[in-house]
Design a protein that fits this description.
single chain, about 290 residues, alpha/beta, two-stranded antiparallel sheet, 11 helices, about 45% helix
Length: about 290
């Protein structure tokens, strides 16, 4: 077997994306080149690594085993580059961070800007995922650290407090819910909703919560930011479920009513999760320390 680091990174990207096309894009390779590399890996190994279907690709048993070792080798390579770079360039390196929607939109921009300003040679690869997906990827070594909801089972991962927030409902002043101080998510499901893009982790989470109620989200429109959701809510298009920090900021410039959600899951304790703080690469450990102190 003659796999180089580009092969291994490509294979990880393809499996994580569930598609050779999207995996090639992540690895900055042409589709034809990526397909050729995957076929060459399978030929060299003498076994199929991917199961291909109309829905995408998934790893075979051999692929699962390769994925495990590939992630370990890539992590070791990244650690080597960071530690050598720290000696040569005073702290250069890249940290891969996974975060849920709430952390990514409300808290990480400010926290990361402070860290990056103090570490000009460091870059951060930030990606949005569902909390349970983040736990799995951090445990597998696909990311240095994650920011997840405190309610998710993190298994053997180490966790550290990050922020606390809660989800609320925002409505136009004349909406039937506007006169209420609080409401359950089940009650909110009686009305049209303005939501985030289907790919967002929060929207998938809310869809799952609605399914537990035996209901579906009555989505009128889906947007890319909480601020955009609030603007359409103000126009009477529907109601929105947003972080309380977003709602508090929005009412300074928009005519909105804020209704507390009574569901237990509405309170969000956000936590940093890592496999082992002591074993993190120095630059990643510095980021964790910075986020904890912010």
């Amino acid at each position: 077997m003659r796999f180089d680091l580009t092969d291994l990174r490509l294979f990880c990207d393809v499996v994580e994306a569930g598609s050779i096309t999207r995996g090639a894009e992540r690895s900055a390779l042409a589709l034809a080149a990526a397909s050729t590399r995957i076929r060459a890996m399978e030929t060299s190994l003498g076994a199929a690594l991917l199961t291909r279907s109309r829905q995408g690709v998934s790893p075979t048993p051999a692929g699962v085993l390769l994925l495990k070792h590939a992630r370990g080798l890539l992590e070791q390579s990244a650690r080597m580059q960071d530690e050598l770079g720290a000696l040569a360039e005073g702290g250069a390196g890249e940290v891969r961070v996974l975060a849920n929607t709430n952390a990514l939109t409300e808290f990480l921009p400010e926290a990361l800007s402070s860290f990056l300003a103090d570490h000009p040679q460091v870059s951060v690869d930030l990606e949005e995922r569902l909390s349970d997906e983040i736990v799995g990827l951090v445990a597998e070594g696909a990311a240095d650290l994650g920011i997840v909801a405190g309610t998710v089972d993190v298994g053997a991962l180490e966790t550290y407090p990050f922020r606390t927030d809660r989800f609320v409902v925002v409505t136009a002043p004349g909406h039937p819910l506007a006169a209420r101080l609080s409401a359950s998510f089940a009650q909110a499901l009686d009305y049209d909703l303005v939501g985030l893009d289907r790919a967002s982790s929060l929207q998938r989470f809310l869809a799952g919560r609605a399914a537990r109620e035996g209901r579906r989200l009555r989505l009128r429109v889906q947007l890319r930011s909480f601020d955009a959701v609030c603007r359409l809510v103000e126009c009477g298009v529907g109601i929105g479920v947003v972080p309380e920090t977003t709602a508090a900021r929005a009412i300074c410039t928009m005519d909105l009513a804020i209704v507390s959600l009574t569901d237990d899951w509405a309170v969000r304790e956000l936590k940093i999760c890592v496999r082992s703080l002591a074993d993190l690469r120095p630059v990643a450990r510095e980021l964790v320390d910075s986020l904890r102190a912010a």
